[in-house]
Every structure is written in C-alpha cells, then in structure tokens.
C-alpha cells in the first residue's frame, strides 16, 4: 500500500516569495567496468565524456574548473566528481562530472521547470555520447536532494520546542535524565535522520534535520532526499522524466508537510528590504 494518497501529493501549492532553499542537487551514477587484474573500477567513457559533454554544453557552460580530486588517478576515485562546468566564475547552476557520476547543483535561482529541463538535457547528452559498444550504459543511482535553511534563534527558542511547534516533529526525553540539575535541559546541538521506503518512485525517502548555520546565522538545515538504486533507477530519458516528476512530487509533499502553518506563511511573504 502506498505511503501517501496520491491526491495529497497533488494539492495546490502556494508561491514562495521568500523560499528557504539553500541548495538543490541532482545526482546520477552509472555502472563502472571492473579491471580483472587490478580489480579497480573504470569508467570506459572517462575522460572523453567530459570533453564531449563540454563541447555539447559550452555555449551555456563555457567555464570548466578542475577540482582537487583530479590530483588522484581516476580509477582511485570512482564516483567522485573531478570537473565543474559553469556559465562564469561563481555562477549557478553548476554541472560536476567524474568517473561514473554527474551532479547538477542549483541555489537561489532554482525553478523546477528550468532545473528539470537541464537535467534531461544533460542526461540525454550522456546517453548519446557514452561508448555503449565498449561497455553497456547502466544507470545505478538516481537521486534528488533539497536542502532548506529554517532560521532558528538559539538564544530565544528551545530546539525541541521548535521541532515540535514549527516542523511538526515531536521528540521527548524522559524527565529523569535531567533530575538533579546535572544535565541541562536545553541541548546544545540537535539532529534527526529518517529513512522510509517509497513505492513511487520506487526507492527511499531520506529526511534529515540538523542544527547548523546559513549565511552565518543559526538555522535548522532540513534535507529531504529521494533516491532509487539498481534496477529501480531510470535507464533512459523517458524513464528519467517520469522519475523526476514523481520524485519532485514527493520532495514537495515532504517540504509542505513539515513546514505547514507559521513557517509556510513566512515563506509566502515577500522578503523585507
């Protein structure tokens, strides 16, 4: 039985004039070939894929940056990004590629339609450019992650009360823990992690809530992540398009469920000048 009724995922979503988004990340991985002598994993398309992908996308992403991981041999860093493509220095979105992996990262300029279109464009290029005659292209992981920063005043608010009242997460500790006044009742740090199975898309839903900082100010970093592995990962553009739609619906559902009420009202207000 599905975890959520479909009609709940399709409810009307208000526009966010003051969104808390810190970063959105799409990640795709493909299978690597194992060398029979060294047992190392090798991407048969790397580094040629990187050059060809750059040629395909250089009109919109003309700047290419080498990451520190390029100092190591590619076979020593499977599934680690090694190159970054941008429109210009410090510009977003960012494309990152390495042996068996590509990520697309976006921040404040995020819109779902543009982000989805870029993902499909990049993955279509990978499918067309991959040397499948040498080794079959097999996607083994598809993942989309949203990181939101929820402002939190550590001086004025109790972390557990904030989780309960603002993010609808109730956590209680036995009062005996604080008996005698040796253990302070207000935690200095807080973090929660949950993993749930998903039926649409087939895979996992991960949620993480941790105290941290955004722009130098205290905040709860709220992540929700949808991922599919192995045979459940999409294998072509049409499959990826359907997967992205379902994953986005689920991520949106989680965000609006956790932040409904006072937080959502703030996110719908225009930012103060």
SSE arrangement:
Blueprint: H1 6-9, E1 21-30, E2 33-34, E3 41-42, H2 48-57, E4 63-66, E5 83-86, E6 94-98, E7 101-106, H3 112-129, E8 139-151, H4 159-165, E9 191-199, E10 202-214, E11 217-229, H5 237-259, H6 262-267
Antiparallel strand pairs: 1-7, 1-8, 2-3, 4-5, 5-6, 6-7, 8-11, 9-10, 10-11
Helix pairs in contact: 2-3, 3-5
Count of individual beta strands = 11
Report Rg: 21 Å
**Biggest sheet layout:** 9 strands, antiparallel
Strand order of the largest sheet: 4-5-6-7-1-8-11-10-9
Indicate how many domains the architecture comprises.
2
Helical residue percent band: 10-25%
Instruction: Please report the number of helical segments.
Output: 6
In N-to-C order, the SSE pattern is HEEEHEEEEHEHEEEHH
Report the sheet-strand fraction.
Answer: 25-35%
- How widely separated are the two ends? 47 Å
Mean pLDDT: 91
The multimeric state of the shown protein is single chain
Q: What report would you give on this structure?
A:
There is one protein chain. With 273 residues, the protein is of the alpha+beta class. The protein is built from six helices and eleven strands. It has two domains: 21-137; 144-273, no CATH class. The strands form two sheets. It has a nine-stranded antiparallel sheet with strand order 4-5-6-7-1-8-11-10-9, with helices on one face. A two-stranded antiparallel ribbon has the order 2-3. A hairpin with a 2-residue loop joins strand 6 (94-98) and strand 7. The radius of gyration is 21 Å and the shape is globular. Mean pLDDT is 91; it is low at 1-8.
